Every structure is written in C-alpha cells, then in structure tokens.
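Throughout our pipeline, every protein is held as a single compact record rather than as scattered files. The record that follows is passed on verbatim for readers who wish to inspect the format.
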Amino acid sequence: MITKLATAKQHLNVSADKPNLILWVDDYPDNNIYPRKVLEVIGFSFELALSTQEAMSRFSTGKYAAIISDMGRAEGTREGYVLLEEIRKLDGNIPYFIYAVSGTNSREKLKRETERRGAQGTTDIAEELIEMIITHVQVS
C-alpha cells in the first residue's frame, strides 16, 4: 500500500479540468477520518456533505474529481443510490464510490448492483476504497 501511495502521489494530475477535490457524503463523517487522511497524503482534499440535498447543492457549484457516499442516511436506507441517480442525470462520467458497511452475505450483491447503477465500486474496507480511488481518479 505504501508503494502505491507514493506512486499515486507522483502521478496525481491536478488541473482546472481535473481538480483534486472529492465530495464525501456521509451523515457521520467522523467514521471516515482514516481514509480521508490517507488520501490527503497523496494530494486529495475533501468537501463534506451530510445529506443528499447538501451534496446536490455542493455538486451544482463545484468541480469534483470524485464522489464518495455512504449508503444509508437519515433520509433513507438506500440514499447512496438516490444520490447516484441524481448525479448521473447531471454527469455520467464522474467517479462515484459507495463506502458503507455491508454484511458478508450481501457484499457481492451490493457490488453488482452498484456497478449496474453506474458507480465505480463499493466497499466497506478503507484500504480497498483507497485503492479504488487511486485506480479510478486522476492517476495516470
């Protein structure tokens, strides 16, 4: 992982068209401090949103390299998909990841559904999320 982080940091391509800013949507953002800190080391920064409505407001006014969302929020248990559908109406290309706890029985089902809906991936493991970001976002 350390080697991948060093390589990713060297190849991070930040420009006006590809900002290094990630929109992270989660009603409990303190649960995500570790992966945010690791991604900050390689050059990403974050804006946090606590709800789908707040995320859509931020998305309409900013340029983001990617979106990371939890699945369930106060608005609903599948709010990560609700946000994904709204984002895809506006932008079919921005990398979108769901970072949420899933039971072992539903992990593969959740991954298939997430991909079918147009996201780049889903996981409940911080290291796996970091790898997905490195793979899909601004790394040449």
